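I would like you to help me understand the sequence and structure tokens below and explain how sequence relates to structure.
___
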Amino acid sequence: MQGGRTDGAAEPLYGLVAVGLETEWEVEDAQLERRVRTWAIPGALALAFLFAATGAGHFLQRVFFSMWVHELGHATAAWLCGFPAFPGPWLTPMAASRSPLFAIAVFTAIAGTCAWAYRSERPLLFRAFVALAPLQLFCSAALHQGGARQLIVFMGDGSCLVIGSLLMLTMYAPEGGALRRGWLRWGFLVIGAAAFADVFAQWWKARTDPDLIPFGMNEGAGLSDPSVLSETYGWSATQLVHRYVALGCVCLAVLALVYAAALRQKR
């Protein structure tokens, strides 16, 4: 009987030890995540702007980060507008006209992703693609071809601001997801901050120095994006600067709001 009482007393003791260890790990994980949410995005942006202010740093940011996001932005805008396109280094080849079949395929892919996200219980992804569906319908069916082409050109540097912000926001991915299990969100943070800082710093400085606007020719790619918007569609230098700066400020405001909400939620 004595032996039985000893075994019976040991079992809950082991359970209490296990619960205590698990709680300690959870506390440490929560503290680490709180530090990440406090410093990751502001720190990455600060370092990215410092790199953008140096010649070598700016060159590396442009070649390895912002150029790829820039071309992906052209391609993404083209897909939403119904133009087949393929992002490449320094150039995004695009079809000369809209393709209704391609636009239907893009809408089908968006709808399929919505259904998959709903079945997989991924609410953030589901909401994002639900919001993307009407945007794709508008851009491919309601936006006239000239307006679509202007959007596609604008969203080169524009997407460095928009996609760069979205990449940084992956730091707040839900717990247990693929982005949180590995280092993927840290890679997205670096890419997003570098692309954002590269483009925003350039257009911000162009407010007082119009010579910084990259008018002219791109080797092997024809006119630069600002030259196309200016010479083909009549955008003035002031309109170019104000529109890019305004978009960047909106993205910064969204980053700040999500940052504050994430801090409050974790606390």
User: Anything to note?
Assistant: Residues 255 and 261 are 10 Å apart (CA to CA).
